[in-house]
Please model this.
Amino acid sequence: MENKSFRALVVREGDDKSFTRAIETKSIEELPPGEVVIRVRYSSVNYKDALSASGNRGVTRNYPHTPGIDAAGTVEEDAGGRFSPGEEVLVTGYDLGMNTSGGLAEYIRVPVDWVVRLPQGLSLRESMIYGTAGFTAALSVLKLTEAGVKPEAGEVLVTGATGGVGSIAMRILAKIGFSVVAAAGLMDEAEFSEYEAKLKSLGAARVIPASEVDDTSGKLLLKGVWPNAVDTVGGNILATVVKSTAYGGVVTTCGNAAGHELDLNVYPFILRGVSLLGVDSVECPMEPRLKVWEKLAGEWKLDNLEEMTTEVDLDGVEERIKLLLEKRSKGRTLVRL
Model:
């Protein structure tokens, strides 16, 4: 195809090992190998993008690099013919935005097996309001329900409920009949009051501060108060949740914003029969991937998606990256390209 020029966020490493970010002009021929070229219409900004944009080698090994683990747009070219020019598609997960030039650019080129046809009932814009965060949230709910958890089992705790994944998980659970307890982030009293009202308006039955699920006593087991839980932050909060889950409860885990280490013992598992289920949105096989997107376009589709979304253009991404790195970002950031 024609070697078009386009705008992209590019992260570069300096001689002093510092990293800078700027909007630059690139060309199609600079993109990595792949069968499908996509004109990106919408993307989003995620915590992993912020890490990649700041030089985190655990996310991105080589620079210069364009982050963006989400992309939705129209097919420009498919060398294999599976997709037609103009067809609406989306890409989340796999290596997009990690070591493959990502969606914070007007064009991407990716392997055909990464590409999902936009499901009926979902617009390109809506798909990126969900993005990886929404997909991960829905996959967490799917894991919970496929483990046999039903609304009549009692409350479901959702940690990180003011973040992208947590807020969407909370809303999906409320939509399908669960009573949700939302654990808000670490914030002062005035800010907590503001988000308590907001989270209740979005479906939470109760809102608690994160400090209530951040036990530092060192106890091996805590009172079993949560029938089931969706954890989105990891670290000591996840350890606290597992130790305070009631008998036979199920906990899903999908994030590490609160830390990647997990200080646990076997007692919640062998004395209470608690199940801890990992949720991976990156290498998720295509069959459950398609199932999740169909649910997000259908029976799990949320009303008023705009309420949890801040929209920016490519020039506005820098500010959102800074907010994520400072752990001050709330809800989802949609990027209009």
User: Anything to note?
Assistant: The mean pLDDT is 94. Residues 132-278 form a domain with the Rossmann fold fold (CATH 3.40.50.720).
